[in-house]
Amino acid sequence: MARIVRALLGIGLLVAPACEDPAPSCRERARAGAADAIAVCEAEYRRSGAAPDGVDLASLYLGAGRLDEAAALARPLTSSSEGAIALRVLGIVTGRLRSCDDAIVYLATARELHLRADDRRNLARDNHALAGALHDCNRFSEALAALDEAMVGAAALGDQRLLGYTHLLAADLFAKLGYVRAAEAEIDAAQALRAPADAAWRSFLQGSVEMSAARYASASAMFEQALAARPGADLDFAARLALTISLQHLGRLDEAARVLATVADEGRAEVRTARTYVAGAVAAADGHDVDAARLLEKAYGGRIDDEWGVGIATLRGRLAWNQDRAVAEQWLRRAVDHAEAMLRSEPAVELRPWLLASWRTPYELLFSLLAEAGRGDEAVAVWDLAQGRAFRDFLVDRRVDVLARDQMAMRAQSLRRAVPSLASVPAAPRSGVPTLADRLRGHDVLLLVVAEGQVWSAMVVDGRARLRRAGSLAELEPHLVALRVDPRDRSAAAALGAALVPSELVPPAPRPLHVVLDARLSALPLAAVQRQGRILAADRALIHAPSLSALGCRSRPPATGVRVVGDAGADLPSARREARWVGERFRIAPLVGERATRAAVLDGGGDLLHVAAHATLAGGAGALVLADGIVSADEIALAPAAPQLVVLAACSSAAALDPDQLGALSSAYLIAGARQVIATSRAVGDAGAGELVRRFYELGGDDHPVAALAAAQRELAEQSTFTDWAFFAAYGEDDSCRQRGQP
What we know:
By secondary structure, this protein is an alpha/beta fold. Among the domains are: 218 residues, Tetratricopeptide repeat domain (Serine Threonine Protein Phosphatase 5, Tetratricopeptide repeat, Alpha Horseshoe), CATH 1.25.40.10; 114 residues; 183 residues, Rossmann fold, CATH 3.40.50.1460. The protein is 55% helix and 10% strand. Strands 9-8-10-14-15-16 form a 6-stranded mixed β-sheet, sandwiched between helices. A 5-stranded mixed β-sheet has the order 3-2-1-4-7. A hairpin with a 2-residue loop joins strand 1 and strand 2. Helix 10 runs antiparallel to helix 11. The chain starts with a helix and ends with a helix. The N terminus is likely disordered.
């Protein structure tokens, strides 16, 4: 619900006109919020007929929400000396009317004209307006690039007001992606906006961020603060609507209804749709299901885009859940279709999991509905749409256009470090790509899903899925925490084994068990889970995959060569001994100390790379700490080649903060082309990691790593005083890909 207000406002487009510079008298009145600002500017334009006065007036019309008048005034001015500014006004108006492609063309043309004229002030404003249009069209990676240019330009000009509004737009974008901390940082960076009208916008955006984080009490306070500043009509409408939503979430339904009654039902179609949607949500919360259904269906039939469609269809599907499951399914499938359309419109693979995480609810509801109906294959197919999306898209078509880039702005929490361009990969299925059924055939799979607070265990054998409810996440959480703290906790291991692992998967079997974990269960040390008094690794070799669609063998060129890197900081004595032992085993000199460099882990492919060093999370993504600096997961993923097998005996080398775990070092090496990666889900001890590594290689880890890891874990569970073995896992392909002689 928080997003519907931002979608209605087209916030990036609305704030852009506020940054224009009308003639002095207009500017003074406009910035002071004077009621006669437009009248004064109209008089000036009637008197002068000059193009500069015309575009100033058009900008004021735009700021007042008088879109038809703004467009009518700007259109004939496109051929004047102020044609570029007139195009910007037309672009903003067009975007407000939900014509994305036309808006972007107008704004990109204005930017090109100002670039040719070397008009840096207007160029910065063009970038700001274009970022808003791209944001509202759900083209977020391009919006990030335009915002970065707008920020750089505004800072160079010393235009603190434009810079502040650009920070607000960045905050809204990050909130839309669900990255609340970055959004909060951008709100803080906009504190220079102190004029009453500007402060009202800042309060509104801060309330939107609070609402995205489900902090509805503080959100309500921010919206009331924005309204207290007596803002213009558009912001007044949006703030009242947002306040209604916040009060509804707080259960203060009478107050929500009173505020909603004060929201003017303006003539614009998108305004009526938003008001109807919120009225439906309030009616649903108040138990008036019939009225709610009628209002939501009316809103859905109005002027909506995919973002609105997801929200309305999801709420309508939830409303039908207890009355008619067929109707609920119909609406939830519509919601998923809208979400998929949004994903296809975003070319940046890295942003897709954040988008998907923001719109996870319809996938969860549809999965739950199908699972409860015993339609296991359909439920699994729906979940595969939502799991491992970015990773799968990289594997389907790894066309990386840019090899040098900074980390994602979301990871760095700084828009000024936003990537100038991102990997562009289509999200839609491509011809020649195996279907999900093809990928599952011949595999044993354990899929653990968290949907609507419930944990589901899905067993897939030879392409057929069988699901059962394992219990609520809240019920299982104490056992998950206990096993993570101590993998020898028999009570927790047995409870989780009984809940999560179907008995059919327990008997020893020659082929490995592929594991796909919900991101909220990614820290589970599954090897230590017990059934019938035995750890799972004792009976099955486990291989983790980011999604069901990532199963199978990939072609890759043959490679030879071994590299061993360790103890870059000369502070891990066991890691140094480990590196020397591995080096001796393969008769090579290990790269330790000052020789453990970035180049050592980035250069070339080979058959094996072993790393025994520190790892960290830098900006939310994994990174190896080496003698001459860190190597980020981003750099690894974009490397031209990767070893066949990578062993990362480092802390949390399979962990990241993004929803798909795409930023994990293990994922990065798989994306770069590795067949298999051995990595850790949490911090491990120096000595315990060394013990696991030694046993792993002694059991043939370089030839069949998945089986060797399971065997090593089985032995250490029985013999070792250390428990670090439980936090190692194999990722990628199973050993049969090597054994079948795949290139």
